[in-house]
Amino acid sequence: VTKSVGSGAAVPITANNVLVKNLSFYPKGERLGDRNAPRITLVLGVGAKGVPFSDALLNLETTISSRVLKD
């Protein structure tokens, strides 16, 4: 996984021995007036490179939400 700011070069934000198989973001309630609290569900599949059982993945899912509902 890399990060870039503006037109700057992308820099890695994970270690070289980390395999990120998938990373997805699912926003909900992002439109004003839809009466849904804003939240983002993050889904991540991650494993290790160069070790026994390197094909084994840890799947993580979490949802981050706002406590403030704006009309």
Summed up:
The protein is mainly β and 71 residues long.
Describe the protein.
- This protein has 71 residues and is an all-beta fold.
- The protein has strands spanning 2-3, 11-12, 18-28, 39-48, 58-65.
- The strands form 2 sheets. Strands 3-4-5 form a 3-stranded antiparallel β-sheet, with no helix packed on it.
- A hairpin with a 7-residue loop joins strand 1 (2-3) and strand 2 (11-12).
- It is flat and about 50 Å long.
- The termini are far apart.
- Treating each run of at least 4 consecutive H or I residues as one helix, how many helices? 0
Structural Rg: 17 Å
Q: Determine the strand fraction and express it as a percent band.
A: over 45%
In one word, what is the shape? flat
| Order of H and E elements | EEEEE
Class derived from helix and strand content: mainly beta
Low-confidence stretches: none
How is the quaternary structure best described?
single chain
Task: Please tally the β strands and state the result.
Answer: 5
- Mean pLDDT, as a whole number? 86
Share in helix: under 10%
> N- to C-terminal separation?
35 Å
Biggest β-sheet strands, sense, barrel:
3 strands, antiparallel
**How would you write the strand order of the largest sheet?**
3-4-5
